[in-house]
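Justification of computing resources. Each target in the renewal requires a structure prediction run like the one illustrated here; the chain below, 165 residues long, is used simply to show the kind of job we budget for.
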Amino acid sequence: MELFVMIRFHIFVFTGYEICYSLCEVSAENGVIKQKRLPDHIDNLPERLPVNARFYLKNNHLTETLVPDNLSNELLREARINFLQLDALEICAQLTLRDFSIFKSIKTTEYIDHIFKLKSLYGIPQLERFLKLPNQEMYWTITEILRESNLIQRSKVIKHFIKIA
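Resulting C-alpha cells:
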C-alpha cells in the first residue's frame, strides 16, 4: 500500500510528504457513510474494495471528512447495484478466477486421501471447498432468478445467466 500512496503522489503531484497521508476506505452501508483507515501493509487493493466503497488518500493532520454530503448521496446510489447491470463476461471471468484459485490450492495428497478414503491429519479442506462450488453457484443462480417477482425481469436474469455460462 505504501507503494500505492507513493505512485499517487507522483501522478497527482501532491504537496507534502507521503508520510503525512494514509489510504482510507469510505463505504456506504444502510444509509450511513463509514470511513476507516487501512493498514500500511495491505495488498490486493482491487480485491478488497467492496462495491459500496471507494479509496481516498487522507492527510493525517486534518480531521475533515473525506466525502462531503453532496457526494455521499452519489456513493449511496452507486452502492445499489442490480445483477443485470453487471457485465456477463466480467462475472464469468471473476467466477473462473475464484474457482481456479481454489482448485490450484488443492494438495495432491488431498486427492489421494479422498479417493482411497484415508484419514490424514491434514484432511481435505481445499478439495471439500472446491467440491462445494457447483452447489454454491447453483443456489446463487436460483436465488437471483427467484429474487425477481416480475416474469419479464426473471427472463432477463435467465438470459443474463446464459450469457455468463
